[in-house]
Amino acid sequence: MYPIVIVHEEYTDFLKSSIEITGKNNKIFLIGNESVKHLESHPSVSYIDIKKYTKLDKLQQFQNEFIHEGDKDRRTYMFWFLRLLIMYEFAKDHSLQSFFPCDSDNVVLKDINKFPFSSKNAFLIAKEWTPFNHSASIHSGLLNLDFCRIYEQLLFDFYLNKKENSFFTKKIEFHKSNPGSFCDMTIYFYIYKKKLLEIDNLMQPRIFDAQKHVFTSSYASSEGIESKNQYKLRFKKQLIKKDRKNNSFYLINKKLNEKEYIMNIHFQGKQKKFLNQKMVNWINY
């Protein structure tokens, strides 16, 4: 069984809504501080104190030596890098060979253990639409310990061992005068691009429950594997329709003019405000 793992430090209302939706069909391990502990009252949630991992010597060393290169505050970027390190230690503690990381602003709509992954590691990999668009996301993903080990080695080599990596440094230099940044998503993309492991791209639709299913990048995006303008939007949000007969949700692929059922909704950035009780009621009932 692949449990879902969410790392989220401080309680927010959207986290509660996320758990109510994702936890309907999935077992969740929630790693956070005391402010989120009460969410373990949900029958699908097991709470883990994040301090058990953030106090580890190697994670402390990383936090001390991390160099801030992004366009947001240092703590935000550092935490993005830390999350998978924390999940790696958690997985080893619980003898998990694989797990499904899930961002706290992302909801999983069906049982991920029934989904037909084609590889031991799977996440969303966008096309390189523009130079240095090195973007891969594990807001929905299947990862094993090999992936986590490689990620940790790359991260520590770059920040702690000061090992040169031209792929990383070129991206950092590019974003000094262009929008975007070097972040954890760059490392995921690097593992895919350099073929360090076989990766199943979850932006690629496949048949599941007798319907074409896909994972999506963002509630505010029409991007798909074929085009940055692949899915219909309404009011700058994904036009998600409900199939009440199958208790499922779908988008419309504009090019093919056909339904693509979705496994997740990612309420990224400002879209978090829509991850609320109204959304819970619409999806779960």
Give keywords.
single chain; alpha/beta; Spore Coat Polysaccharide Biosynthesis Protein SpsA, Chain A; 2 domains; 8 helices
SSE blueprint:
Blueprint: E1 4-7, H1 13-22, E2 28-32, E3 45-49, H2 51-54, H3 57-65, H4 74-93, E4 98-101, E5 106-108, E6 122-125, E7 136-144, H5 145-159, H6 166-174, H7 184-193, E8 200-201, E9 206-208, E10 211-214, E11 233-234, E12 237-238, E13 241-243, E14 248-253, E15 258-262, E16 264-266, H8 277-284
Helix pairs in contact: 1-8, 4-5
Structure explained in plain terms:
Helix content is 30%, strand content 22%. The protein is an alpha/beta fold. The chain is globular. A hairpin with a 2-residue loop joins β9 and β10. The model has no long low-confidence stretch (mean pLDDT 95). The protein has eight helices and 16 strands.
Distance between the termini: 26 Å
Beta-strand residue fraction:
15-25%
Named CATH topology of the largest domain: Spore Coat Polysaccharide Biosynthesis Protein SpsA, Chain A
Secondary-structure element string: EHEEHHHEEEEHHHEEEEEEEEEH
At CATH level 2, the architecture of the largest domain is Alpha-Beta Complex
**Biggest sheet: strand arrangement:** 3-2-1-4-7-6-8
Q: Tell me the structural class.
A: alpha/beta
Number of H/I helices: 8
- Helical coverage, percent range: 25-40%
